[in-house]
């Protein structure tokens, strides 16, 4: 995932700007392809952190984080859709080495 080198914003307070994964389809651990149109219950989403405010303590730019897509504010910068969150709205940070680039990160 390519992260823009220079964003036209400076994050304030405890805000985190993330670029959500746009995985339309996902694959189960058994290898079954689950289409994007499949009805599922409340599901959390993964995103890459692209900018953080000065009071953010637990995440850094480049981390992969888990958040609730219902608790989000969206913003468009340079034609790309980003999500703006507070640090307290993040549920988890992916451990280094556990991200294989696939969709296997599920809680």
Task: Pick out its properties.
single chain, 107 residues, mainly beta, 10 Kd Chaperonin, Protein Cpn10, Chain O, 6-stranded antiparallel β-sheet, two-stranded antiparallel ribbon, 8 strands, 0% helix, ATP binding, 10 kDa chaperonin, chaperone, unfolded protein binding
Shape: globular
Largest sheet: 6 strands, antiparallel
Quaternary status of these chains? single chain
Percent of residues in helices comes to under 10%
Q: Give the class from helix and strand content and strand pairing.
A: mainly beta
Distance between the termini: 22 Å
Q: What is the averaged pLDDT score?
A: 77
CATH topology of the domain at 15-23 and 41-93: 10 Kd Chaperonin, Protein Cpn10, Chain O
Can you tell me the CATH class of the domain at 15-23 and 41-93?
Answer: Mainly Beta
Number of DSSP helical runs: 0
Which spans of ≥5 residues are poorly predicted at pLDDT below 50? none
InterPro entries: Chaperonin_GroES, Chaperonin_GroES_sf, GroES-like_sf
Protein name: 10 kDa chaperonin
Keywords: Chaperone
Organism: Kineococcus aurantiacus
């Amino acid at each position: 995932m390519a992260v823009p080198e220079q964003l036209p914003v400076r994050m304030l307070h405890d805000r985190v700007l993330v670029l959500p994964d746009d995985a339309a389809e996902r694959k189960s651990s058994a290898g079954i392809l689950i289409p994007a149109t499949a009805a599922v219950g409340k599901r959390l989403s993964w995103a890459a952190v692209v900018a953080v405010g000065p009071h953010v303590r637990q995440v850094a730019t480049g981390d992969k984080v888990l958040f609730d897509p219902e608790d989000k504010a969206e913003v468009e910068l340079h034609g790309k859709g980003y999500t703006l969150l507070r640090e307290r709205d993040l549920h988890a940070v992916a451990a280094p080495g556990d991200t294989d680039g696939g969709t296997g990160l599920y809680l």
